Amino acid sequence: MGPVPHVEVVVVGGGAAGMSAASRVKRIHKDWTVRVFEASGYVSYAPCGLPYFIVGKVKEPDDLVYYPVEVFREKRGIDVHTHAKVVDADYHKRTVTVIENGEKKEYKWDKLILATGARPKSLGVEGEDLRGVIKLHTVESGIAAREELKDAKEVVVVGAGFTGVEVAAELRDSEREVHLVVRSRALRKSLDPEMSELVEEHLKNVGIRLHKGVTVTKILGKDRVEGVELSDGEVIKAQAVVVAVGVEPNAELAKRLGVKLGKFGGIKVNEYMETNLPDVYAAGDVAESWLVHTGTEAWCPFAPPANKMGLVAGLSASGKRVPFPGVACTGITVASGLEIGRTGLTEEEAKALGFKVKSSFVKARTRAHYYPGSQFTHVKLVAAEDGTVLGVQVVGPEGVKGRVDAVATLLTKRGTVRDLFFSDIGYVPPLAPVWDPLVTAARLLYSELR
After folding, report:
1. Given CA atoms 26, 30, 32, 33 in this order, what sign does their dihedral have?
2. Into which family does the record put it (predicted)?
């Protein structure tokens, strides 16, 4: 038997998925060379924490980092390159071209893992390059945003997805005047209309000025932001504008490489995170996936699945075959004391996929009615006509995550409304009533479906 060949693995992207993949490869094959190229100055960071960092709840940039780069270099033996932008890749030559310190370099690879993440969408309007226009993405973008917001008393937030709602609420909690510009409705891609209305009402109650059914047509100012002009002609005075109109897969490198893309513009992968090109893998926000309970195509740029996809990609690149089961698209946020969560499909999404849908919508207490602090939460449960649970949305003052997580777990087993109704969900007066809101929603739907 001849010598074991040396293998060089290149990971493009040092976020959650990239570092998860790199760490797994190095753990399995300590003698392999594993290189990570990250365009920013940080790896293994948490962009989900940026809304809290820009208002000072998270104090230091390093607090957003799960592990400092030294851990990966010195303890795990990974060759991490920060401020290193991969600008090209060649499949036939098995090389990547990287710009580091102003110099163009070329590195060989035997296995390539693409973890280039997602990037913020642009408004595409005049003035978007002014100082004071904020797009949260990297730690550096958060550092710049905190500086821009330091003296801003009036801020416009454009877009009401998870990031937009979080940022608007955090800015309002820090006593700024906040205008939230929404093309249609808050959390449109995450909640059905009746649940979105609850969020909008709460945002207005805490003092956020909601501008619905309009778009920003121009950002005003000479050197820096002075305000925005809306499509209905209204002009809003502001010293900063946060653009949060969504993200898209950062798949430019994949295109140049010849990797096949999917329905949502992300990289198409199989259950082992393999692309159409042998020895090329993809993971995290740049990769598409599928819903764990329906098998339909999905793109869910959230941190938990990104980490798991990275682990699977690392295993596959190492020669281990462990399949990724898919995602439930679970999303949770908190806006000025209101907890908002969803998992699976909304009613609108399910109908668009061709499901014949049944749903229940309940308002129920979060604790026993006699226990101090008992409040009301809202639950919308969505199921197919055969009783299979398709998804849930929960909006309320407390206990939202636990209820959403319960359904997310059920979805992985393609559970039914009956399964949910008869689940032995815990009861204790300070935390939940005898009839948990989730069980109440299941009871109503179970009665209808029988």
Report:
1. positive
2. Belongs to the class-III pyridine nucleotide-disulfide oxidoreductase family.
